[in-house]
Design brief:
It contains 17 helices and 11 strands. Helix content is 45%, strand content 11%. Helix 7 packs across helix 8 and helix 13 packs antiparallel against helix 14. The protein is α+β, with helices and mostly antiparallel strands. The strands form 5 sheets. The protein has a 3-stranded antiparallel sheet. The two termini are 43 Å apart.
Length: 451
């Protein structure tokens, strides 16, 4: 996946042509090698997206044109035809995201263009990073080596994210404002079919409502800068999970299902963000339909996605009624009370099955995770991490004409550079948290987080 067989290297290109020939002319247990490859590649296209590199389909089409559809494998030894092939391949689109070291004196497109067996995928946030770091941003004497998660949110049109970047001095890098304006224009022009092309893009689409300012129809506390930054913080936490390639994670439940009747608690409340719930609901249904159409939907996953669909439908309905000033029913409050138990039930149902069909977890039940999302040539990576779940307090309607304080849970988000030779694992990150050795959280979170 990561090995790039570069067009500028004849030996590497011939290796790519050999792979192309084998895939097109070999069977594996009676199934063509190309079909076996597609069984792996096609589902990942639905989840993450298409490859950002040339592959055997593109090379195969050029093979047929230049060497001939029935040409033997030895045809690649023909130097004249091989040179024609390389020149024709040069006319194909280069990768949009660079994942290789490229020296300043080299032509990036020429150096990076090549073949990958199962290429790395074009994802929007990586493209944003590529467009906002050196060579696109900064100068030779003052390059911007590492991006920030806030770059993604600012490019998705978060004015608060851009304001924070400005305060941090990030926008002072040469060409940063122009590149950000270009990205916002490109992203703003995307239509719904682009945002729903795969689950990765749809996840980013579901985060966008968190970045929008809340108008007068929302509760007063949701119109404050503190809440705007809380929502930005939440979006960054969810995006960190996306980069970690973990959709379902285990976290502490706020309510257990079953047991004796507790004292009547105060009424709960749903954060009224109907657009976010609507997009998450669409993402859930897209996941279900995509897995089902590819024959990958197990009975357990089918049932669990149905539970999630039902829960999101409920949250969407309740949030719309809250914003409209309509009262909630006793049944609504009862379900809100056991919301944490529903999350726990779905998490258990999604766990691997062992023994007599009982779920088990291979790791500790917690939200903490870490992912490196960018690398600079000075031996550092940018780590994005989620720590412990924090408690949040907000003044909300009590369902009886008054107000009370509600408590919920939110992500804790971290971003920091780290030595490349010591890339953090989830286990090491969790050990750091337990030992009190986590780095400081971003300064801008101090406006809504109290130690």
């Amino acid at each position: 996946r990561r090995i790039n067989m570069r067009l500028q290297k004849p030996g590497e290109t011939r290796m790519a042509l050999l792979i192309t020939y084998i895939l097109r002319h070999t069977d594996v247990n009676g199934i063509s090698a190309a079909d076996v490859w597609a069984r792996v590649y096609d589902p990942t296209v639905f989840i993450v997206g298409k490859a950002d590199d040339l592959g055997f389909h593109e090379y195969g089409a050029l093979w047929d044109t230049i060497f001939g559809p029935d040409a033997p494998v030895t045809a690649i030894a023909d130097e004249a035809k091989f040179a024609t092939f390389v020149e024709a391949a040069r006319q194909l689109p280069p990768p949009q995201i660079n994942s290789m070291w490229v020296y300043i004196w080299e032509d990036k497109e020429q150096v990076t263009q090549g073949f990958r067996f199962m290429g790395q995928r074009f994802v929007l946030d990586a493209y944003i990073f590529d467009e906002l770091t050196w060579r696109e941003v900064g100068t030779f004497d003052n390059p911007r080596w590492l991006p920030k998660g806030l770059d993604v949110m600012a490019a998705l049109d978060s004015e608060e994210a851009y304001a924070i970047l400005d305060q941090m001095g990030e926008t002072a890098y040469a060409h940063y404002p122009e590149q950000m304006a270009k990205l916002r224009d490109e992203i703003g022009a995307l239509q719904l079919d682009s945002w729903t092309q795969n689950l990765y893009w749809a996840w980013l689409y579901a985060l966008q409502p968190l970045l929008e300012p809340k108008g007068v129809q929302y509760p007063a506390f949701m119109q404050t800068q503190a809440w705007t930054r809380k929502d930005l913080h939440t979006a960054l936490g969810s995006w960190t999970e996306l980069k970690h390639d973990t959709i379902l994670y285990a976290k502490q439940s706020m309510a257990e299902m079953g047991g004796g009747p507790p004292p009547e608690p105060p009424h709960g409340w749903v954060e009224p963000n109907p657009e976010a719930y609507a997009r998450l609901l669409a993402l859930t249904r897209m996941t279900h339909d995509g897995l089902q159409s590819r024959g990958l939907l197990t009975e357990n996953t089918d049932a669990n996605l149905a539970r999630l669909d039902n829960l999101l439908t409920f949250l969407l309905d309740v949030s719309q009624r809250e914003l409209a000033g309509q009262p909630l029913t006793r049944e609504d409050y009862e379900r809100i009370k056991f919301y944490g138990g529903e999350l726990e039930a779905m998490t258990l149902a999604a766990a691997d099955q062992e023994g007599e069909g009982q779920p088990f977890f291979e790791e500790q039940e917690q939200a903490a995770l870490v992912a490196d999302v960018a690398t600079d040539p000075n031996g550092r990576v940018l780590e994005e991490a989620i720590g412990r779940i924090f408690e949040i307090y907000a003044v909300v309607p009590d369902g009886a004409g008054g107000l009370h304080i509600a408590k919920g849970g939110v992500f804790s988000y971290y971003e920091f550079p780290w030595p490349m030779e010591d890339r953090l694992t989830d286990e090491k990150w969790r050990d750091m948290l337990a030992a009190g050795q986590a780095p400081d959280r971003p300064e801008w979170t101090a406006s809504f987080i109290s130690e």
